[in-house]
């Protein structure tokens, strides 16, 4: 891949503490996985470069603490992100039940227009410990109007697919916006050219 960067997208992971946000980030960016990860204590980010539609895309993936007391600080960051992933643990029903609260938090601090929104169920490899069904996740995603996927940081199930799909959406939106701006400029130029001064 060329060193030239075509697009930069900032991605925010939000969800309750222990939902698997840090596993997701570290596995995707560094291919690192450990069950001994400690709870996130600050606003950490990692960078990954991928190719989508023959475009070089840099993704900044931000992983804030999932604790309630960190929300006021997080609110000041939210406008910066093009994509937000609402993350829960499929083996922890309470983390799933908190998703609606996280969605409301995001919606109250950011315009949702042109935001790529995903609901992500982690630990899909732990099927025998599942407390939230796939259908429950899909139903909530449909209700909130967002994409849905289950992933695993352990065996990388759907991990690369998730970010390729997400970046595909963001690149398409960016290209459409650029095209619309060019067309608007051309239209204004044509109107000036056709203006009669007589």
From TrEMBL:
PANTHER family referenced in this protein's UniProt entry, alphabetically: DRAB11-RELATED (PTHR47979)
Family the UniProt entry places it in: Belongs to the small GTPase superfamily. Rab family.
Protein's name according to its UniProt entry: GTP-binding protein
UniProt-recorded Gene Ontology molecular function terms: GTP binding; GTPase activity
CDD domains: Rab
